[in-house]
Specification:
single chain, 136 residues, 0% strand, elongated, binds heme C
Length: 136
Amino acid sequence: MRSTPRGRATPAAVLVLTLAAIVATAARAASVLDFDVWMRSIDKHSVDVQKNLDARRPEAAVADAQELSRLYGLMTQYFVDDGQAADAVEFSRSGKALADAIPPAISAGDFEAASQAALELSHACNDCHDVHKPFQ
Ligand code: HEC
């Protein structure tokens, strides 16, 4: 019997889906490793930004805040892609907003507001950790 185009497509479709699943698993595994790297960097910069603000080192504090913003952006995307934890997406977004608030506050000479944002960011770590750390 002549095989229909549909009949021929099925094994190929199965192969494509299998490969896609393997690639997705590999991508996800790599991201978990990346995630721990981001976390350790978030840990460092969240402490450094406060030290640099206390010592009135504006350039260093801005650099810390920009790195925190970048890392929280990556974390936001991670949890968006993951699709399992809407609260973690929100925690990541609000942390990024706090990091983003620091450079303009410094530019305005308002170190108090910058420190307040940095402190709030640090106090929020456990909101996420309590629920999501370690990964299930
Ligand atoms: C939106 C969620 C979220 C936020 C916000 C968050 N973390 Fe995490 N963090 C996690 C998760 C999830 C893990 C566990 C990752 C795992 O199991 O591999 C983790 C792990 C860690 C680790 C251990 C990393 C390692 O090497 O295993 C450190 C250190 C850390 N976080 C520091 C912080 C600090 C400091 C902050 C705040 C300034 C913060 N995190 C904010 C989700 C978050």
